[in-house]
Amino acid sequence: MFTGLVEATGHVASLTPTESGVRLRxxxxxxxxxxxxxxxxxxACLTVTAATEDAFDADxxxxxxxxxxxxxxxxxxxxxxxxxxxxxxxxxxxLVSGHVDGRARVVALMEEGEARHVKVECPRxxxxxxxxxxxxxxxGVSLTVNVVAGNVFSLMLIPHTLAxxxxxxxxxxxxxxxxxxxxxxxxxxxxxxxxx
Length: 196
Known about the structure:
Strand content: 35-45%
Radius of gyration: 17 Å
Structural class: alpha+beta
Mean pLDDT: 94
Helix content: 10-25%
CATH architecture of the largest domain: Beta Barrel
Largest sheet: 7 strands, antiparallel
Number of helices: 4
């Protein structure tokens, strides 16, 4: 479980094809991670399969490659990193599972002083989980939705977010990993179950 509060950025050191998908190596400031440990990389919960003092490896299977943007990243690309939430720690963002629901795309960017207003288009089947003043996670960053119109939603990126995450590099057309609010999914499931 994560919070969507990015701890650091790393970079894609390599993407190597394997029999079952791709092995991703990420240059990381975390030091040597433990084998089997989870790390959120641009919002996708990945398992550490090898680690050194300045990098870790994770295997991307076909599901991860189809649902996320990770397999399309170029060597050297910056990525948002977060280690799992520790029991008893403050929950400053929102509950984030690291299970990416799909890809969202930037459709408009507007500067508003030092902040940036962003409009994002999400897949139509995920739009029902996005609510005004609700939470979404984009590339591992917990964000508050300002306005929803169909399958397009707007949000405001504050200067801190622009400075310490990869979201400061967004351009129109950029695709990001989207995780909708976990609570919304369970509410829907419980409601549908009650009707059955």
